[in-house]
Design brief:
Helix content: 10-25%
Structural class: mainly beta
Number of helices: 6
Largest sheet: 30 strands, mixed
Distance between the termini: 31 Å
Number of domains: 2
Shape: elongated
Number of strands: 44
Oligomer: single chain
Radius of gyration: 25 Å
Length: 463
């Protein structure tokens, strides 16, 4: 689901009001330790301004969240400095030292111009009972650290669990860290980890998300971020859609492991403009492994292993187009292999699609100007090879269906099976063009046809 897009003028004015109001907020306590300035003030004030300026769905926190938050107003603080400054000015037990590290017992807001560093070897426990969470409007860096939620449920909000949320392209940096048991509810903002670039707080390239171990979160969401890099992470046992990327451009998602996910999707990409999804492992889960939708374009999905999901492994839908799916292994998924559902032009080449309990490839409701180009794939032991309904143009070229017998084609494509079998005599791998429900044998394609088709995608050239 695409996140709502606020009106630019309202967002701009809201962000200005937010920053101005917090800058003059009444202080229950204030300490300047070096260049670090802290205050304790109303959480509701920050949340109401946040909701209007960046469309964050935080109504439950506004109505029933903790009354007070700890604000870092300026300067750069470590956890030790944060604890010392709060204690020395009477905001006692806001940040508590423990045998293993520190415990945060109230919401923490890092304002624009301020920074919090959680560094190598440190452990921060977020107190669920007290409604703790971290909101970064300035900068929060988590590097080589451990963050986890702990405690009995917070009385005010059913199901509440602490979370990290950043507003601004570079508001939140998480590298080589372990995060567990975070996130709740249906809002992306409170799902566990959220980074969004909106209003005055969105500019520049996103911080990378690399080398982390995320376990038992509800979701990790990146919204309206450019140049995002998600690499070498482990996402395990998530309770909602695991990694969600909404809008933004030029994303790289590579060498990640998605394992045991329980939400609707392990990876959900909506409205992205240019993305490389390469060399990831999707290893069993509920729902679907990957969904690309909402007019996403120029997306390459290559060299991934996707197996053991209860739903269809890969879905391209809702106008997403100029998508290339290349050299992936898609196997043993209960719902099917790859589905193109009202998608634009999609190029599938050199994939192994095997032992899926549904169709290896299902094509449904193609727009009139789109083409599914299916080139040099191997279909093996699926319930059926390729199923099509509501077709525009499908090109089946040089695919290996020798182990897909006896059900090669299904749906509207079933009636072109004789043409395909006739062209396959003598062990040939046919090149068939299907225009709606008619089919014809075509001239052989060049070996680089898939790459040329993706490069030309969106032009007037035909595939």
């Amino acid at each position: 689901m695409r996140l709502p897009e606020p009106k630019p003028i309202a967002r701009l004015l809201g962000a200005l009001a937010f920053l101005a109001t917090l800058a003059t907020a009444p202080l229950a306590a204030q300490e300047a330790k070096g260049d670090v300035v802290l205050s304790s003030s109303s959480l509701r004030l920050a949340l109401m301004q946040l909701a209007t300026s960046v469309d964050a769905n935080v109504s439950d926190l506004i109505e029933a969240g903790p009354g007070e938050a700890l604000y870092v107003q300026s300067g750069t603080a470590t956890l030790a400095e944060l604890a010392d400054a709060a204690d020395s000015e009477g905001v006692e037990r806001a940040v508590v030292r423990t045998d293993s590290g520190f415990r945060l017992t109230r919401p923490l807001v890092v304002l624009q111009g301020a920074r919090l560093d959680i560094t190598e070897g440190q452990e921060l426990t977020l107190d669920r009972t007290q409604g703790a969470f971290i909101l970064a409007l300035g900068a929060v860096s988590v590097e080589g650290a451990t963050l986890r939620a702990e405690g009995t449920p917070y009385d005010g909000i059913p199901g509440f669990k602490p979370f990290l949320a950043g507003v601004g392209q570079r508001s939140l940096s998480i590298t080589d860290s372990t995060l567990s048991d975070l996130g709740y509810g249906g809002s992306a903002f409170t799902g566990g980890v959220f980074v969004g670039a909106q209003g005055l707080l969105g500019n520049g390239s996103a911080n990378p998300l690399t080398g982390n171990d995320f376990s038992n979160l509800r979701s990790v969401t990146l919204s309206q971020l450019d140049d995002a890099v998600i690499r070498d992470n482990r996402f395990a046992f998530f309770r909602g859609s695991t990694l969600r990327m909404v809008d933004g451009a030029d994303a790289t998602i590579t060498d990640n492991l998605f394992s045991g996910t329980r939400g609707a999707h392990a990876l959900h990409l909506s409205g992205l403009r240019s993305a490389q999804i390469t060399s990831n492992t999707f290893d069993f889960g509920g729902g679907k492994a990957l969904r690309i939708d909402d007019n996403a374009t120029r997306v390459t999905l290559a060299d991934n292993d996707i197996a053991g999901f209860e739903g269809t492994a890969v879905t391209v839908a809702e106008g997403a187009g100029c998508v290339r799916i290349r050299n992936n292994t898609v196997a043993e998924n209960i719902g099917g292999g790859i589905a193109l559902d009202m998608a634009g032009t999609v190029i599938l080449d050199e994939n192994t699609i095997a032992a899926n309990r549904g169709a290896g490839l299902a094509i449904n409701g193609q727009p009139a100007d789109s083409t599914a180009f299916v080139f040099a794939n191997r279909f093996d032991g699926n319930r059926m090879g390729v199923r099509g309904t509501g077709l525009a143009t499908v090109r089946l070229a040089r695919n290996d269906l020798s182990d897909q017998m006896p059900r090669l084609l299904a749906g509207d494509l079933d009636q072109v099976t004789p043409t395909y079998l006739d062209a396959a005599r003598g062990g040939a791998r046919p090149d068939i063009v299907v225009d709606k429900v008619s089919a014809r044998v075509s001239d052989s394609l060049r070996k680089d046809a898939a790459a040329r088709a993706f490069a030309a995608c969106g032009d007037e050239e035909t595939l």
